[in-house]
Amino acid sequence: MHHVILGAGPAGVIAAETLRKHAPDDTITLVGDEREPPYSRMAIPYLLIGNIGERGTYLRKSLTHFDDLKIRIVHAQAQSVDAAARSVKLDNGDTLTFDRLLIATGSRPASPPISGMDLPGIHTCWTMDDARAIAKLATKGARVLQMGAGFIGCIIMEALAARGVKLSVVEMGDRMVPRMMGPTAGGMIKDWCETKGVQVFTKTRVDAIEKGSGDAALKVKLSNGTSMDVGLVISATGVKPSIGFLEKSGITCLQGVLTDEHLQTNVPGIYAAGDCAEAFDKVSGKTIISAIQPNAAEQARVAALNMVGQSTELKGVTQINVLDTLGLISTSFGNWEGVPGGEHVELTDLAEGRHLSLQFMDDVMVGCNSVGWTDHVGVMRGLVEGQIHLGAWKDKLRQDPTRLMDAYLASAQGQGAWNGAQDTRRR
């Protein structure tokens, strides 16, 4: 049996290792489109801060790890898949045939349609090559503009700030982290960043980028009429699933590669996992892409087990975000914006920099988010993901949303759903 895995990120690596554990004699080929050993993109900001070296980003520290497991690594990019012929065409001219295929190609940065985006000095923060280029330009005192203040953007911003640059951030939305936070919470994060010396423009876009003069390599023109001379532009305007090569493959794709509860696509023997997979979420009741590493890991494990004939179902997609923005912790779980016909409660203390929002449908907490509120983060996640029926505790939480631990202890234990969730900080 030949298993081909497209993508050498966390999902691809975990799938390959799971396959080897349960199918010791099968052939496994892992295809990655970068020359480095498999590494974590989420470690790149820590590389830029200087907390780790390049080897610290590697997913497995032993350089012989994959050879030891007899997992063949091919450095190439998939150009197309022929589901009927059970083959993958690579950009190095080779064609791989497979018995089982896992699509774990992840996502890629979205490029905004702005004139001048091809100029030198404009980078995403996505690959090791990006990191090397940014490290050369993001020196202490350098003027840097970052486009995008979403989840990934805030992580990159932290790394840039740690390097001592003069940083400006431009966000088209009316607040920071708009896909994770409401207006109040997003505004609080913006205020926090500005107290830390980061200039933030919301409801603003980059209209054009031109060559600069002198020490300023680039001139950036903003929609609010401002022009900025900078030495580096970081594009952090979101990502999209890397699935373009599947066009005409016969594999059904919506926003991502559509999968069933076994992570199998519409084509038997072909699976998907990670940031490119669109899987069913039991909390929202729909298929979603949730591009976080815990999902990638669990989806990879489930897909691999099914690839070796062990019928396994994905329990659901985890919708969790825990973000550290220059020392301010924020979280969101589940349907943090609420659901039609639902109820909600908010508690905000601007002086203390704390905000808590809980969303309910009937007596179930279907979502929540917080800023500066690190108490009971694990409990919030447990209530949402466990779909715990709160009963009378729903109204008690509406009166005092800080009583989350009391509500969890009373409700989860009574339903046999207690799993030892603890008061979790910075989780």
Explain the overall architecture.
The protein contains 10 helices and 26 strands. Helix 1 packs parallel to helix 7, helix 8 crosses helix 10 and helix 9 packs antiparallel against helix 10. It folds into 3 domains: 175 residues, FAD/NAD(P)-binding domain, CATH 3.50.50.60; 114 residues, FAD/NAD(P)-binding domain (3-Layer(bba) Sandwich); 88 residues, FAD/NAD-linked reductase, C-terminal dimerisation domain (Enolase-like, domain 1), CATH 3.30.390. With 427 residues, the protein is of the alpha/beta class. Helix 1 links the parallel strand 1 and strand 2. A 5-stranded parallel beta sheet has the order 3-2-1-7-19. It has a 5-stranded parallel beta sheet with strand order 9-16-10-11-12.
List key phrases describing it.
single chain, 427 residues, FAD/NAD(P)-binding domain, five-stranded parallel sheet, 10 helices, disordered C terminus
> What does the overall shape look like?
globular
Report the top-level CATH class of the largest domain.
Answer: Alpha Beta
CATH superfamily of the largest domain: FAD/NAD(P)-binding domain
Please work out how many helical segments DSSP would assign. 10
CATH topology of the largest domain: FAD/NAD(P)-binding domain
Helix content: 10-25%
Mean pLDDT: 93
Write down how many β-strands occur, each being a DSSP E stretch of 2 or more residues. 26
Low-confidence stretches: 418-427
Cα radius of gyration in angstroms:
23 Å
